[in-house]
Amino acid sequence: MEKTSKLSGFYKLSVDERRKIVSEFADLNKEEIESIGKNGSLPMQTADNMIENVIGTYELPLGIACNFLINNKDYLIPMVTEEPSVVAAASNSAKIIRESGGFITNSTRPVMIGQIQFSGIKNIAHSRQIILEHKQELLDYANEQDILVRFGGGAKELEIRIVTTQNFGDLLVVHLFVDCCDAMGANAVNTMCEVVSSRIKEYLKEGSVGFRIISNLATERLVRSRATIKKDLLGEDTIDRILEGYEFAYNDPYRASTHNKGIMNGIIAATLACGNDTRAIEAGAHSWASITGKYLPLTKYEKDKEGNLCISIEIPLALGIIGGATRVHPTAQANLKIIGAKTARELAEVFASLGLAQNFAALRAIATVGIQQGHMKLHARNLAMSAGAKGEEQIQKIVKQMIEEKNISMKRAEELMEKEKEHLCS
Ligand code: MEV
């Protein structure tokens, strides 16, 4: 049977039923499904080896975004987040986008930039030329430090930049371009920068080596995703309101910040689920958003000549499917298997599509019913459960009543739950 990520009513199932569907979709074995623990899954010894001063582990819900069709392939996307509505919104957008043909993506090679900074160089132009004369030797030397070359990656290029400072004059900065293949790449790039800096110092015979570290502004590791949503699925009025909201964000950094936050709601949740570095992704996204000198939305919204809504995203995403926490964290490994990306680029294209879906969901909601309606429904559900409601029927009954009364509060949830108990006892 053809596997599909189109799972209508997934949210209505029990946790066990959902786990069964996901493990069948991704061919998870018993160990892998157990590693997505219902009661914790990160062994204490692994946690203790991951960071310092460990006293325990910290849990968050792991949900599955459904319905994603990307380049004609079905994906289920694990997301870890504390925020209600996020997973539902992504799944809902993906469902609409799927009906219009799904997402289409592309990406650059996964190239990261390492920065090697020198100060106190008197003859900058001369020094620049000396470094460029030794370019191939320096690249070869960098490539001796890591196994990336074996996989077709490694240091490919270098360039020189001059950064003028207020108190330290002109700094000479070497940018080392490293194709990181399926790794996020920070370790490889930092190692290369450190060793190459000493070699450059030998050639220059003046100045001193300063910072040697990866840049999170990954302008050479860009990922793109787009979708065209048929006019009939949204209606002309909604499309125009969405476009107006987009232009609001394009012209106002206060709105653009929130617009981009919505995108990152999706991307960060999936990044965390897959054991990748969320801060690197966040730093890259926001610095890219302001690369023109103006802080802009990371997505674009347009109308085609038929009046359909064309949405797209371009974002740097430094993600890996090997190395780092992906190597040791059992749940991250299982989550990567659920996505089924064969390369880091494929993973990044899935995440970019998720970010786009998340953003579309937010804009559509704000342009129509407002964001609070969905939020309040989930909030009501959480309150009902906290008040002790059990089973879908009872939870729905209390949620419905609170929404109808426009009184969504813990107090009301408890009162309604008391009534339920009385009703059951009588
Ligand atoms: C909430 O977490 C995210 C939104 O504010 C995004 C947006 O306004 O576009 C809904």
Q: Major beta sheet, specifics? A: 4 strands, antiparallel
Bound molecules: (R)-mevalonate
Structural class: alpha+beta
CATH homology-level superfamily of the largest domain: 3-hydroxy-3-methylglutaryl-coenzyme A Reductase, Chain A, domain 2
Write the layout of secondary structure elements.
Layout (H helix, E strand, L loop, with lengths): L14 H12 L3 H6 L8 H7 L11 E9 L2 E8 L5 H14 L4 E4 L3 E9 L4 H10 L1 H9 L10 E11 L5 E10 L6 H19 L3 E8 L6 E8 L1 H4 L1 H16 L1 H21 L4 H12 L9 E5 L5 E8 L8 H4 L1 H10 L4 H24 L4 H15 L4 H15 L4 H16 L1
Helix pairs in contact: 4-14, 6-7, 9-10, 9-14, 10-11, 10-14, 15-16, 15-17, 16-17
Bound molecules: (R)-mevalonate.
Q: What features would you describe in this structure?
A:
By secondary structure, the protein is of the alpha+beta class. It has three domains: 10-105 and 224-368, 3-hydroxy-3-methylglutaryl-coenzyme A Reductase, Chain A, domain 2, CATH 3.90.770.10; 111-214, Alpha-Beta Plaits; 373-425, Helicase, Ruva Protein, domain 3 (Orthogonal Bundle), CATH 1.10.8. 50% of the residues lie in helices and 19% in strands. It is built from 17 helices and ten strands. The chain has helices spanning 15-26, 30-35, 44-50, 86-99, 124-133, 135-143, 186-204, 231-234, 236-251, 253-273, 278-289, 325-328, 330-339, 344-367, 372-386, 391-405, 410-425, and strands at 62-70, 73-80, 104-107, 111-119, 154-164, 170-179, 208-215, 222-229, 299-303, 309-316. The strands form three sheets. It has a four-stranded antiparallel sheet. A hairpin with a 5-residue loop joins strand 9 (299-303) and strand 10. Helix 6 (135-143) runs antiparallel to helix 7 and helix 9 packs across helix 14 (344-367). The two termini are 49 Å apart. The model has no long low-confidence stretch (mean pLDDT 94). Bound molecules: (R)-mevalonate.
